[in-house]
Description:
Strand content of chain B: under 5%
Distance between the termini of chain B: 52 Å
Low-confidence stretches of chain B: none
Oligomer: heterodimer
Largest sheet of chain B: none
Shape of chain A: globular
Helix content of chain B: 55-70%
Number of helices of chain A: 10
Largest interface: A-B, 47 and 34 residues
Order of helices and strands of chain A: HHHHHHHHHH
Amino acid sequence: MHKPVLTDQQLVEMYQQGNENCLTILIERHQKRIFSAILFLVNDRETAEDIFQDTFVKVINTLKRGTYNEEGKFLPWVLRIGHNLVIDHFRRNQRMPLVRDKEDYSIIESLKLTDENVQDKMMREQIYKEVRLLVEELPFEQKEVVILRHFADMSFKEIADATGVSINTALGRMRYALINLRKIVETKKLVLVS
Amino acid sequence: MNKYLPMYNNFTHDHLILYYFNETDLPDTVLTQQHIDTYPEVEEEFDAIVNTMEKIENALVNPSAESIQKILAYSKTVVS
């Protein structure tokens, strides 16, 4: 017999009524997308763990205060919080990644420069290597638009508003992210586990 | 990959991106689907978008168990 699956909204409401298990279910359901989105942006496991925790501190506080009003859009809401905390993190450390919108920016050249680091990184877990090689090498603003569009389900108009650029620029960043990801896959001959 | 697919007037990769993310209006949805169905080069470009996004999905990772435990512990300290 099929067990009915609770929606995010139902879990949020039950959590707000005091059922702590519902938060566990929500985290289990979405942890991979939320954590990976943060990790893609910051390129550092430890920082990503911290920001992931801080994201849920804000989520918990908002839900328990009863001020959550994103009915039906739990995951995009959490991802937007995570994205904002990533931006705060870079601002706080005054290390905002350089924005490169030049169409001739070469991801291949960038990869060559980091070859030595790639050697060291091979010591780490295989799955992290795959993540890094796929997304980490992208310029920040390209990763940002991929994450906000694909993971947070924001429209290009919403992304344009949130990042202070035109829709065409947001679309262009997505286009170059896709170009660069394809180049990375071809250059590195990546074979990812399906 | 240029913005414009030169052999098809006014049809760009942006059409394919917007179509993939369900952001095309009805006329552009029809136009894009027709191009994908008609031109193998366009279908190949669209498949490349789909495959790239699938690769990102396959590369997702979980946070540490410690992070989850800290979050759940924090939640129990916050009163509704």
